[in-house]
């Protein structure tokens, strides 16, 4: 029985590391999510948060998806963000095509969308961060 306790504690700890913050909504009404992409579990790299203020939001979430390139995801956001009222401020490609950052503004908010190749190169992580300009 005593041998099972460390294994059980380790399993509970590992499960806790791969959870999502329940206080953070999975989506925002004016932020599109590519089809087939789902919310990534919170880790040090993908930590999510949400604060709703009267005139702006502090929001960060990461989605994970497979079968697309960073460029394809970037193209999706460049088309869909303006449909949702966001104006492109700038787009910064990575020289290797591994990361692409898009910045948008809307009212008093700035949204930063970062698409990057996952560490095993078979998936894409998309992080959306909204803050006060």
List its traits.
alpha+beta; 133 residues; 21% helix; Protein Transport Mog1p, Chain A; single chain
Outline the structure in words.
Strand 6 and strand 7 form a beta hairpin. This protein has helices at residues 4-17, 70-83, and strands spanning 38-39, 49-52, 57-66, 87-93, 99-106, 109-117, 123-132. The chain contains two helices and seven strands. Strands 1, 2, 3, 4, 5, 6 and 7 form a seven-stranded antiparallel β-sheet that branches. With 133 residues, the chain is an alpha+beta fold. Residues 4-17 have low confidence and may be disordered. The protein has one domain (4-132): Protein Transport Mog1p, Chain A, CATH 3.40.1000. The chain is globular, with a radius of gyration of 17 Å.
Strand and helix map with partners:
Blueprint: H1 4-17, E1 38-39, E2 49-52, E3 57-66, H2 70-83, E4 87-93, E5 99-106, E6 109-117, E7 123-132
Antiparallel strand pairs: 1-3, 2-3, 3-7, 4-5, 5-6, 6-7
Instruction: List low-confidence stretches.
Output: 4-17
What fraction of the residues are assigned to beta strands by DSSP? 35-45%
CATH topology heading:
Protein Transport Mog1p, Chain A
Please compute the radius of gyration using only Cα atoms. Answer: 17 Å
- Biggest sheet architecture: 7 strands, antiparallel
Helix percentage range:
10-25%
Category by helix and strand content: alpha+beta
CATH class: Alpha Beta
Tally of individual helices:
2
Number of strands: 7
| SSE succession | HEEEHEEEE
**Level-2 CATH architecture:** 3-Layer(aba) Sandwich
